[in-house]
Design a protein that fits this description.
Distance between the termini of chain B: 41 Å
Oligomer: heterodimer
Structural class of chain A: mainly beta
Mean pLDDT of chain B: 92
Order of helices and strands of chain A: EEEEEEEEEEE
Largest sheet of chain B: 6 strands, mixed
Distance between the termini of chain A: 36 Å
Shape of chain A: globular
Number of helices of chain A: 0
Mean pLDDT of chain A: 93
Low-confidence stretches of chain A: none
Strand content of chain B: over 45%
Largest sheet of chain A: 7 strands, mixed
Helix content of chain A: under 10%
Largest interface: A-B, 28 and 26 residues
Radius of gyration of chain B: 13 Å
Order of helices and strands of chain B: EEEEEEEEEEEE
Low-confidence stretches of chain B: none
Strand content of chain A: over 45%
Helix content of chain B: under 10%
Shape of chain B: globular
Chain lengths: 114, 113
């Protein structure tokens, strides 16, 4: 099992450019999540998908969109990148349901917006 | 709304000594509590969780955590620290009615040889 995979690992964008971060999991998990990690702030939830076909906003959704393509894949799109979106982005998955299940994280994408 | 506090940015401990990384939480209803570890340039890895039952929870790599409902705390402990335990540790909470996890800001643990 590869677990949770993310592409790309690194990306540099200019302000105003767009890009999509890809995430896939092979654990047959129902729920998937996108977080950003900034120094001293822990992880902040951007969007999540409780199950295939549903998505919901998290704590910091502005400037982002998501697509739950199928049960395995959950992508995060930046339509017009801003320097404030410079961060490390993590995708995670869990079995979902009652909330007792832990999350499994991908290796992260380090994004710099200049 | 739920929240998590990790009052120490940094914890230093000598190898072989016991370690404690502190976490307090605020949540409506009964909490589901988690600890994760992050090594440099890696994603978070699950260590242990408290859902219900025994207040002392055992997890991976010899770590354990003690749930204290009256103090709303969930401190991570290990009897004897290893240099390889040096990493960033995150406490997280999820309440029964929500889909979201809320993470603390993280505590950097340095184990000195």
């Amino acid at each position: 099992n590869a677990g949770v995979t993310q592409t790309p690992k690194f990306q540099v964008l200019k302000t105003g450019q767009s890009m999509t971060l890809q995430c896939a999991q092979d654990m047959n998990h129902n729920s998937m999540y996108w977080y950003r990690q900034d120094p001293g702030m822990g992880l902040r939830l951007i969007y999540y998908s409780a199950s295939e076909g549903t998505t919901d906003k998290g704590e910091v959704p502005n400037g982002y969109n998501v697509s739950r393509l199928n049960k395995r894949e959950f992508s995060l799109r930046l339509e017009s990148a801003a320097p404030s979106q410079t961060s490390v982005y993590f995708c995670a998955s869990s079995e979902g349901g009652t909330g007792t299940y832990e999350q499994y994280f991908g290796p992260g994408t380090r994004l710099t917006v200049t | 709304a739920q929240s998590v506090a990790q009052p120490e940015d940094q914890v230093n401990v000598a190898e072989g000594n016991p370690l404690t990384v502190k976490c307090t939480y605020s949540v409506s209803g009964n909490p589901y509590l988690f600890w994760y570890v992050q090594y440099p340039n890696r994603g978070l890895q699950f260590l242990l969780k408290y859902i219900t039952g025994d207040n002392l929870v055992k997890g991976s790599y010899g770590f354990e955590a003690e749930f204290n409902k009256s103090q709303t705390s969930f401190h991570l402990k290990k009897p004897s620290a290893l240099v390889s335990d040096s990493a960033l540790y995150f406490c997280a909470v999820r309440d029964m009615s929500g889909q979201n996890f809320v993470f603390g800001p993280g505590t950097r643990l340095s184990v000195l040889p």
